[in-house]
Write a structure and sequence with these properties.
alpha+beta, two-stranded antiparallel ribbon, 21 helices, 11% strand
Length: 453
């Protein structure tokens, strides 16, 4: 199932791609389907059921607000964050919904939104929407699954192994070995292969525009994050650190060690914005959204300003790597733990940076492999269900690892023992073996030990 690079890099809002972006999109899609079936006008009541991880950490991740905003007809890329907060408060206070911003119905937040902590069999991030008529009879119901990175699938799609979403592209590949073989046989870089494939989904001018827009939002999230002080919402009383670090770096002398400080700052700025519900780029998830912007900002600060051609090289290369993880494992923290989020983002950033440094295709694979190999087994154990501890700092570590992985790959002599395909297969097996309490449920690890302390 080939997907567009812009499915992996989506503009949205925090704090979570799987718990905020995906559910918002799914809720809107549900009502659009109801409209197509001429059921919408009969609706007088709706019931929302959140299952598994969406129930366990959904409130902390903003899933409740996300699905309600989706039912209002909002989309993650364009929603006004301040307006969303106001509407959400009114919904809870005044007991109403305005479906697709045009049909008003009664809605009791406390009884019409249900949390079921048991996973549905298909995926830990399940949700169901049910419509009723004025006689309290069910007229339409549908289940969706938020599968990571803002992607969602209906029950029929996930049962059909996503096949109905497949598109034919110029260069078909599912494994890295296939990708490298295509590249060698056609004398192409990984980025050039993806560039050809991307024309299946978008025209060239649209591709260029989207790349510029994504980079602009990444820059904006860093800039705003460096300027915005205060306490992050959610009750943990976590202070934003990026502004103070930014001021300190600007006023201190340059040293070799400051490279680490600048990279960490970039990642902190983005993920503090994400934790506050700000606009960021899913890359490939919200919880790991700071790693790729931090890596790109590092390149601009210590190498050269990025041109459109270089941005495409990076995003197309990173996108190919992200596709391999999504195709052969998962980018959902609820399925794989944080190795599926921070680990994948680190791997993508490492490969993209290696491409910018004009590494060979094989060296790019090595960079991506190193980026994941040293994130294997990483758990997803957010304290209080919030994308703050350990998530924000974890992005700084992921960005540093990505840069180091790319540097190691440049010096690779061809004697590596672990392929990217093997490390992806290993990551998937570890994710399957990992106990559910360590996979975005806030029932294990730091999520319980920090609270106890």
């Amino acid at each position: 199932m080939h997907i567009s690079v812009f499915d992996l890099f989506k503009i949205g809002i925090g704090p979570s791609s799987s718990h905020t972006v995906g559910p918002m999109r799914a809720a809107k899609k549900f009502l659009e389907l109801a409209t197509e079936k001429y059921i919408f006008e009969e609706t007088t009541k709706i019931k929302i059921n959140l299952h598994g991880s969406l129930a366990s950490t959904g409130i902390g991740h903003g899933t409740d607000k996300a699905v309600i905003m989706g039912l209002f007809g909002f989309e993650p890329e364009h929603i006004n964050i301040i307006e969303a907060d106001k509407i959400f408060s009114e919904v809870k206070d005044k007991n109403f919904l305005l479906l697709l911003n045009k049909k008003k119905i009664s809605f009791d937040y406390h009884t019409d939104l249900d949390l079921d902590f048991k996973n549905l069999p298909q995926h830990p991030n399940g949700m169901e929407f049910v419509l009723f008529n004025d006689k309290s009879a069910v007229i339409y119901r549908k289940k969706f699954f938020s599968v990571g990175g803002g992607f969602f699938l209906s029950e029929s799609e996930i049962n059909d192994n996503h096949n109905n979403k497949a598109k034919k592209v110029k260069f078909e590949f599912k494994k890295c070995d296939q990708l490298l073989e295509i590249a060698e046989n056609n004398n192409l870089t990984i980025a050039e292969i993806v560039a050809f494939n991307e024309l299946t989904f978008h025209k060239q001018e649209e591709i260029d525009s989207k790349i510029i827009r994504i980079w602009s939002v990444m820059q904006e999230s860093v800039n705003i994050g460096c300027q915005t002080e205060g306490i992050l919402p959610g009750g943990l009383n976590v202070s934003r650190r990026a502004p103070a670090i930014y001021k300190k770096l600007l006023s201190s002398k340059d040293t070799p060690q400051k490279i680490f400080d600048w990279v960490s700052l970039y990642a902190l700025a983005v993920n503090e914005q994400n934790a506050a519900g700000g606009r960021i780029v899913t890359a490939p998830t919200n919880g790991a959204a700071g790693i790729i912007p931090a890596t790109l900002h590092y390149y601009e600060k210590y190498h050269q300003k990025l041109s459109l051609a270089q941005l495409k090289t990076f995003f197309f290369t990173a996108g190919a790597i992200g596709f391999l993880y999504k195709e052969n494992a998962s980018i959902s923290g609820a399925e794989m733990g944080c190795q599926g989020e921070v680990g994948v983002a680190c791997s993508m950033a490492a490969g993209g940076l290696a491409a910018l440094r004009e590494c060979t295709n094989k060296q790019i694979e090595v960079a991506a492999e190193i980026g994941m190999e040293h994130n294997l087994g990483l758990t997803c154990d957010p304290v209080k269900g919030l994308v703050q501890i350990p998530c924000i700092e974890r992005n700084t570590m992921g960005a540093i690892k990505a840069i180091n992985a790319a540097r190691l790959a440049r010096n690779n002599d061809g004697t590596e023992k672990v392929s990217l395909d093997k490390v992806i297969r290993t990551m998937k097996q570890i994710g399957l073996d990992m106990k559910s309490r360590y996979k975005e449920t806030s029932r294990g690890g730091l999520a319980i030990n920090v609270i106890e302390c």
